[in-house]
Amino acid sequence: MKKISLVVCFLVCSFALFAQEPPFYKDIQQFKQQDSVHFPAKKSILFIGSSSFTMWRDVQDYFPGYTIINRGFGGSTLPDLIRYVDDIVVPYKPRQVVIYCGENDIASSDTITAETVAQRFVTLFEAVRQVYPKMPIAFISMKPSPSRERFLPKLQSANQQIKEYIATQREAAYIDIYPYMMHENGSPRKALFLGDMLHMNKSGYLIWQYAISPYLKK
Question: Mean pLDDT per segment of 10 residues, for the chain of length 218 residues?
């Protein structure tokens, strides 16, 4: 009886683990619900990434000459974007994809290297290009958040590796916001951030508007 009980317990636990929703499943379902009510126009510019996009709720106001689809979901890492390419990229047939992600990857563990983050970006880039071979893709460099200042050397290294990869690709752009968000003494500009020193205030987003606008495709 004891052996049977252990087997049953194992099967129940295995089923529960299998049935568990993947990370950010509810966020993706919310996007689908929005789309079912009003599906975005094709040939829009698609923003995908983490909370810096999620919290940019008025992003359309910053780029009035373009139609923006914002599919950022807070806390996401590059593997999360890769997991949901079929949900947050493929359906929209966008004119261009703009990516902001990787910062959470670096902050998630001291064992995550800059090389790992750069390779994850390459995997995401190739996953998008597999569906849309000629579509322009832009990457916004990871920002210097004051709350994550100890990670800046690793973050800069990952940014540089991603920049070098993008330079080898056609219809790809690296949008460098990092220098605009730093003091001359090499410290992050805290005035650009909310109280958590992680997410940006309006001044921070105005810098992003300035840096991103020249790269958007008509």
Answer: 45 48 96 96 97 97 97 97 98 98 96 98 98 97 97 98 98 98 96 98 98 97
Q: Which amino acid is at 195?
A: G
Decide if 88 is inside a domain: yes
CATH of the domain at 201: 3.40.50.1110
Question: What pTM was estimated for this model as a whole?
Answer: 0.90
Of how many residues is the chain composed?
218
Look at residue 12 and tell me if it is in a domain.
no
Query: Rounded CA gap, 81 and 172, in Å?
Result: 18
- Rg, Å, the chain Cα set: 19
Q: Hey, CA dihedral for 158, 178, 200, 153, is it positive or negative? A: positive
Task: Report how far residue 172's alpha carbon sits from residue 2's, in angstroms, rounded to the nearest whole number.
Answer: 61
